[in-house]
């Protein structure tokens, strides 16, 4: 029996969250599948060009990255659907294991995004109640108005923290 060697899968490196969407890049696909990036780009362009325009626009984003020589190079960001279409043709037992890891990574990131959004909504609701109570204090009398002035600054800082919770953390690796 042959032993399969599959690169260890760190979901947070395989996919990322950008504007509430789970994405991967052509660079990551090349890295995990052990392919040359130029070959992955060619495959992505081939698949993209065969797709309906609207689907291609939603699932394949052409962008650039700076290589180790400081030069701008082409790259693609792909959604789960775009990724699935591109790697369908990759064959072999190792490729199958990597495809499965990527699917798990996309699903994991979708769960993370949903959890961040849920946490953010709950925190925003609690914050809105605090703001409403504080505003009522300001209407009642001058002593409470001074209290409201102090609370207003604290509430503004809390709101900034809530907003940071709702945005996924960007992970950069070298």
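Sequence proposed for the structure above (174 residues):
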């Amino acid at each position: 029996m042959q032993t399969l060697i599959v690169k260890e899968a760190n979901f947070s490196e395989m996919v990322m969250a950008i504007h509430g969407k789970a994405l991967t890049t052509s660079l990551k696909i090349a890295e995990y599948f052990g392919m040359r990036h130029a070959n992955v780009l060619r495959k992505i362009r081939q698949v993209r060009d065969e797709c309906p325009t609207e689907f291609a626009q939603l699932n394949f984003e052409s962008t650039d990255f700076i290589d180790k020589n400081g030069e701008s190079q082409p790259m693609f960001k792909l959604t789960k659907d775009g990724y699935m279409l591109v790697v369908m043709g990759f064959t072999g037992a190792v490729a199958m294991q990597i495809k499965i890891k990527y699917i798990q990574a996309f699903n994991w990131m979708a769960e993370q995004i949903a959890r961040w959004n849920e946490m953010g909504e709950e925190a925003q609701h609690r914050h809105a109640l605090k703001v409403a109570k504080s505003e009522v204090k300001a209407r009642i009398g001058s002593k409470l108005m001074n209290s409201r002035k102090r609370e207003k600054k604290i509430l503004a800082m809390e709101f900034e923290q809530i907003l940071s919770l709702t945005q996924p953390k960007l992970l950069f690796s070298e």
